[in-house]
Amino acid sequence: MSDRPDDLLRAVEAAVFASEQPLSIEAISLHLGGADVRAALAELAEHYADRGVHLVERGKRWHFETAPDLAHLLRREREEVRRLSRAGTEVLAIVAYHEPVSRAEIESIRGVQTAKGTLDVLMEAGWVRIVGRRDVPGRPVIYATTPDFLTHFGLESRRDLPGIDELRAAGLLDPVEDALAAAMDGPSAETELTDAEEDTDSAD
């Protein structure tokens, strides 16, 4: 970026910095009267690449975040109010790798029933959302991950989700290795539902 950035660069920088939520390109453009902001975002991202904060795109939304190598300096000791249970971790993994997916399909992959409260916890965390209903008898609700899920785990898109070998090499599978393996290698989300499963989901 030049020593004297132009007005559009400054305006894009200010819009993203001031926003409480990550912004899509369309939202930034709307803030700035319909200006084409793609080149400005790319230039700003390059400018901030070696600084203490980075301008990044997660789930097609832009925001500033602390440089990964400096995050430990800003981390505060705090009590963790709620940690995901094993069931919650398993369900989140299945949704991430198979979305959109219904509760019955989640149960088919896990091999056990899934409490509605587990999905409620994931939705309250802002990581999972309802995206519609499956076009089959009973029209079960289907779930998918959110942009906040990508942001929290530092992913630009679901294409960046790690494979089993990567997770195993990083030592991140314990204690949910079986669940993650099943989530990634299990039946497709398009698996036909039984009448009983359809009835279970339609009650949600």
What are the key terms here?
single chain; 204 residues; alpha+beta; Arc Repressor Mutant, subunit A; 2 domains; three-stranded antiparallel beta sheet; elongated
Describe the structure.
- This protein is α+β, with helices and mostly antiparallel strands and 204 residues long.
- It has two domains: 7-74, Winged helix-like DNA-binding domain superfamily/Winged helix DNA-binding domain (Arc Repressor Mutant, subunit A, Orthogonal Bundle); 86-202, Winged helix-like DNA-binding domain superfamily/Winged helix DNA-binding domain (Arc Repressor Mutant, subunit A, Orthogonal Bundle), CATH 1.10.10.
- Helices cover 46% and strands 13% of the residues.
- It has eleven helices and six strands.
- The strands form two sheets. Strands 1-3-2 form a three-stranded antiparallel beta sheet.
- The model is unreliable at 77-81, 172-178 and 187-204 (pLDDT under 50).
